[in-house]
Amino acid sequence: MNKIISLENLSKKINLLKKNNKKIVLCHGVFDIIHAGHISHFKAAKNLGDVLIISVTSDRFVNKGFNRPMFDLNNRKKILSELSIVDFVCDSDSQDAISIISKIKPNIYCKGPDYKNFNNDITNKIKKEIKVLKKFGGKFKVTEDETFSSSKIINMLNKGITLNEKFLLKINKEFTKDKIIKAVESFDDLKVMVIGESIIDEYTYCETLGKSGKEPVLTMKPINTEKYLGGSLAICNHLSSFCKKISLVSYLGEDGNEGSFIRKNLNKNIKPYFIKKKNSPTIIKKRFIENTDNIKTLGLYSLNDSQLEKKNESDLCKIIQKQIPLHDLIIVCDYGHGLISKRITNLIIKSGKFYTYNSQINSSNFSHHTLDKFLNMNGVVINANELKHEFRDNNSSIVTLGKKLQKKLKTKKIIITQGKDGVLLINNNKVFHAPAFTKNVVDKIGAGDAMLALASLCFKKNLGNLLTLYLGSIAAGHVVENMSNSSPIDKDKILKIVSHQISN
Asked: Could you state, in order of their start, the residue ranges of all structural domains in the chain?
């Protein structure tokens, strides 16, 4: 019998088993490395009923830190299915077991002794799962057998091997788990205003047909299209899990119904203030993706990079002027598509508010877009290529150029992202480095936005250089493991990673 089964088919089987008075027991987890503790847990769970189901967290929802999971979903399911004590194995395409519990309605939901104290569950997912369980009379049980964590085993095996582990040793030495969690929770009271262009990232996945027989053109057949919020929209969604109040100041185009798509996909605690830019479309950046290897073959941008007309600019300035006193932190994300004018720049600088800045160079503005619109910023986030472009210098070191830019912009702190080489933070001529917290890069787009979001909160709360790099790198690492900004960073994800990486 094939024990690995879809949730839909499992639900049908469970209904038949319940009609025969079989008691259903559910265990849920990542199960990255199966060890003796798991076996004891499964045996104890099976003794509580007749049928044991194991649901396994999908790869994209495994929030346990760098290079996790070690074994992909298919391998983890296969190993579990080989255990004689297990009756069925299914995967859970969610951050928790709520959808599984709701679908199969187990008589008993069973967790290991680590969950005896709910306070150890920093995401509060267990409480939510139990609430759903009780709706149909299910019971929650904790097995008593001593167990040990897969994460601890993996961390022991990796210790001292990688740059990531060396950096984590520093973090573990300076911070406790509780201190980091408390720092992240402190973001909640910040009122943040984001100013920047609204962008829709559209990805069309294609089957490659080959070269045209008549001309030297690659031909492709579209399979499906996905749309995500990008630019300032993505930054707001990243922030919304950490802060209660987020405001967005931006523009939309005069054409189409993109505004409804944007409003629908912005999180509820984000208040948008949009103007309509004359003679302009809403910015849509279309990418065509070869479906097999996720390779981008072509980009088509719908945009108008020209500066705002006077009326548009005045309307935007009125909004900014009114909103500035109501916020603690301003994040300016300048994508070079005509939003950030000199008048708006001066308005932000003269406000005296704590603000951070990110300026991005792309193919449409490569020759003329620069980083030096603002002065006296509290923090800047850029990537290494933009830094080199700013000084037209491809030979000097990143550190040299970073210090030069710090002096030029009269800014206190600069973060420079370097892709696989990690990230640098320069503060008062002191340089701090953090490695890249992922090896599974799916799409680089959005990493800088995630870093800007978390680093800005850290700068405002004055959390220190190492902790800022740590939290920002976790956020950026999560984003690049997904296509574009399809999966915004989330406080629970960050806290779960912290709980697995910080030992004390």
From this structure: 7-154, 182-501
Tokens of 122: 């920093």
- DSSP state letters, 388-412: HHHHT-SSS-HHHHHHHHHHHHT-S
**3-class DSSP assignment, residue 123:** coil
Structure pTM? 0.72
Give, in words, the CATH class of 7-154.
alpha beta
CB 249 within 8 A of CB 273: yes
Q: Let me know: does 177 contact 498? Beta carbons within 8 Å.
A: yes
Number of other CB atoms surrounding residue 68 within 10 Å: 20
Question: What's the burial of 265, exposed, middle or buried (CB within 10 Å: 0-12/13-18/19+)?
Answer: middle
Q: What is the mean pLDDT of the chain?
A: 86
Please give the Cα distance from 45 to 27 (Å, whole number).
Answer: 8
Superfamily of domain 182-501: Ribokinase (3.40.1190.20)
**For residue range 255-287, what is the model confidence (pLDDT) as tens digits?**
778 889 999 999 999 999 999 999 899 999 999
310, exposed or middle or buried, with CB in 10 Å at 0-12, 13-18, 19+? exposed
Instruction: Give the tokens for residue 112.
Output: 């290991």
What is the distance between the alpha carbons of residues 282 and 298, in angstroms, rounded to a whole number?
A: 20
User: Is the separation of the CB atoms in 476 and 452 below 8 Å?
Assistant: no
Residues 6+ apart with CB under 8 A from 170: 466
- CA-nearest of 296, 372, 388, 387 to 336 is 372
Question: pLDDT, tens digit, for every residue of 187-228?
Answer: 999 999 999 999 999 999 998 888 777 788 888 899 999 999
The two three-digit tokens of residue 339, written as one number:
């939003």
Residue at token pair 């973001």: 187
Q: Could you please report the per-residue DSSP string of 202-220?
A: EEEEEEEEEE-SSSS-EEE
3-state secondary structure of 99: helix
